[in-house]
Amino acid sequence: MSTAYFMGVDLGSTTAKAVVLDDQAKVLSAHIVQMGAVSRRGMEQAVESALASAGIAQKDINYTIGTGYGRRLVPEVGRTFTEITCHARGVAALFPEANLVIDIGGQDSKVIALDEQGLVDNFAMNDRCASGTGRFYEVLARALECDISEVGALAMKGTKDLEVSTMCATFAETEIISLLAEGADPADVAASVHRAIAHRALGLVAMVGKRDGIIMTGGVAKNPAAVHFLEAALKQKMQVPDDPQIMGAYGAALLALEISSGRQITQYDPEKVQALESKVEATFNPKNRSIPDCISCQK
Amino acid sequence: MGHDTKNALQILKSVANNPQSYIANWKEKNSLPVIGIFPMNFPVEIIAATGALPVIIQDSKEPISEGNSLLAEFYCGYTRSIADQAAKGMLDIFDAFMNADHCIQLLGSVDVVRELLPDKPVYFEHLIAAMDDSWTKTQVQEKIEAFIIEAERVTGQPISDEALLACIQSNNKNRQLLRNIFAARRNGDAQFSPAELQAMIVSSMIMDKNEHSALLESVLADAVAKPRDQRIRLHLSGHFCHAPRVELFELLEDCGAVIVDDDLYTGARYISTDTKESMPPRMALADWYFARNETIPCPTRVQKTVDWDSYLLNALDNSGAEGVIVVMAKFCEAHMFYYPELRKTLNTHNIPHLLIETEHEGMPVETIRTRVEAMIERIRRKSPTRQITQESA
């Protein structure tokens, strides 16, 4: 029976994630709430669900670390870390051989180089442009009139490499519509956009330097086509955690434990990780992944 | 901070934020011309020696509208802002303009001023950028003479060596006062915020130097040293021609950093070098141009004996800065060309650094915040003495 509990909360641009660890760094629960936009209620729901799954109350949490764009909104937060540090920490714990993290979230993408200790060595991120982020895939799905969860499977069926020159998330929609108007197969359009986005990500990778041991995290890593085309662009296989979206919150929870206890968690323990994976899968309720009625439908 | 310090600082901030108001008041009071100076190397003592007020033209915070039709969007924000100010009548207050620097974008904006304000003299002499050539020194001396002749012509006032020397002395005194404040910051005194320091420099670029020095003395007389705290120490580097937005400074400090040194034009670079009072004044002004590049090398100058990266490494040693924030004005060609060299040096010496590209309009605050905080976390987590425990977080 654990005597101390630690929480990591990642409030991103489109989802809120919460992970609870015990004092042995074992994952007790992890929860994701799809919000569509930064939402205090969505974050509260992720926290409440994670606490409920772990069978503990907020008062039982010894230390909480917030991360993501909304990190300062996290209640009871001990301190905050950027998602760069947290994704690096989470990945380093699960993949000791990792040297590079490609994290593509709802509104930004980051490439993080890790040193031998798993600490951030260098990083690059998009700043003014949503190209290549989750938002871009949402634009694609909307233009193709399909659900965001279907766009990857559709892209995997594409066989032609069509010219997609616009990398602006706003203007891309008109280019996609134009291709469809010319009679292009939606699968080819989806594949071509994925391919173009992958090359955009390659630019970020080049900024910190490509290296072996690449792990992809963030919500976009759930899209098999995004992973496939990025691997093709990199000419290199990547590893993807079973739930890549939770990696920032997991890293934050690890940091909460480490800062609170003053000890570094260095041992890779598959059992602890398994808990993370299974719990996350169990909480992946289609209801809480829709936009934006996920919150109202949970009430 | 005492009452006098606050008042004096408030005046300096007010001038920095609203140069037009100060210039209008100065003109009304003195009935003398005001000459607009383009950055970076024009020796303002020449203008001051005529009795006129030299004012280094500042970037306006106003969004660029009319200026967009005058200069292409790939001109830097500062030069487009000058074009915009010229189009909106904001430069009408100046009686003439002088420029000594051959930046192609700056020359574009000078041309706009010349075109839109045809009745105002606009004078350009190029202070040669190749510092080592055998003919450079002679040519710079000739250019200084040409500036003096033009300043006499425009203002109708002859320039004596005595008047030049007096202006050199007042500028040196002003620079020395400012350098004392910057040296105190470098040595661990955090009594003034980066925004306050920038206001001191920018107001010096606008105001009569004696008046400015008097205010500075008032600020210093009442100032109380404030020991540096445990925040991560950063050096700000770049921005050769104009002031970065103070919002950026505030964001950096909000992220848990303290700026301990810089090489910004509106910072240490502007006050780096005095003009020698022991030399004949005209020669001393030419000498200042060369000496300045040796004190803080500028990537727009070519000099084999000095380079910016070596200077930067030395500056980091002196201030104890743990990282470098490179602030690059978008489309600044000189900076863009030099930056890979700088990055290579910083990487070789394992110095954390972050490039922030600035634009005239819009600052992606949250993404910059994330990048700066990530850099600070990287420095903290890699330094055993910087590890934060729950108790100290």
Structure overview:
The complex is a heterodimer of chains A (299) and B (393). Chain A has 299 residues and is of the alpha/beta class. Chain A has helices at residues 40-54, 83-94, 134-143, 151-156, 172-181, 186-208, 224-234, 247-261, 270-283, 294-298, and strands at 5-11, 15-22, 27-34, 61-67, 79-80, 100-104, 109-114, 120-125, 214-217. Chain A folds into 2 domains: 1-95 and 245-299, Nucleotidyltransferase, domain 5 (2-Layer Sandwich); 97-240, ATPase, nucleotide binding domain (Nucleotidyltransferase, domain 5), CATH 3.30.420. In chain A, the strands form 2 sheets. A 5-stranded mixed β-sheet of chain A has the order 3-2-1-4-5. A 4-stranded mixed β-sheet of chain A has the order 8-7-6-9. Chain A is globular and about 65 Å long. Chain B is globular, with a radius of gyration of 21 Å. Chain B has helices at 3-17, 19-30, 45-48, 77-87, 104-116, 136-155, 161-186, 194-206, 209-221, 246-254, 281-295, 308-319, 333-348, 365-382; strands at 34-37, 53-56, 96-99, 122-124, 232-238, 257-262, 323-329, 353-358. Chain B has a domain at 19-157: 3-Layer(aba) Sandwich (Rossmann fold), CATH 3.40.50. A 4-stranded parallel β-sheet of chain B has the order 2-1-3-4, sandwiched between helices. In chain B, strands 6-5-7-8 form a 4-stranded parallel β-sheet, with helices on both faces. Mean pLDDT of chain B is 94; it is low at 389-393. The interface between A and B is medium-sized, with 22 and 18 residues.
